[in-house]
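User: Second chain of the day. Same drill as before.
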Amino acid sequence: MQFDVITLFPDIINTYCDLGIVGRGHREGLIKVNPVDLRPFGLGKHNQVDDLAYGGGVGLILMLEPIYNALLSVKRKPKSKVLITSASGKKWDQKCAERLKDEDQIIMICGRYEGFDERILNYVDEEICMGDFILSGGEICALTVIDSIARLIPGVLKKEETHETESFTNNLLEYPQYTRPQEFNNLKVPDILVSGHHGEIKKWRDEQAKQKTQKNRPDLL
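Assistant: Same format as last time:
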């Protein structure tokens, strides 16, 4: 899987993708992350990438031509999707990651400033957002997409790091988990987890996952 990220801040993408599970997957050749600096595609001697909006309004808008030219510079694979980050986009969730994990390539355009020229959507497959809040730019959103898809690529997670019991699998939040010490400040690990009865532990975890989902995210049920 290759991720190409068109951004004004490629260092944000590079720094995160050198670390942790994503960094390991990158180093092992299971995924490839390629930041594409938008600035060199800007217009004129100052490499302009934004301008005032027609009709007036506050703030600057990302221009169509620099983004279009940056898109043209990315070599396309047979199975690829182009995403753009936008507060107006569809909310990203685990189902989105599952749906796109079999693509050869995900190209992401990071929004910035007050938005982008609407005509860029003619060259985009999907608008996405992280939720009902505003970010300063789309880089955090792009990194979320990379991380959530990368961990579904075979081999990126090790066997002990399986995603199959994580939150949002089967529309449930993950069950509560505990580690040593068994007791701290009179707070004890549930007895069932140290009982050694694996069948009963599984039943307990399934029930706890349902209860936690009902409490925190009933919309998932």
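The domain at 2-150 is CATH 3.40.1280.10 (Alpha/beta knot).

User: Great, on to the next one.
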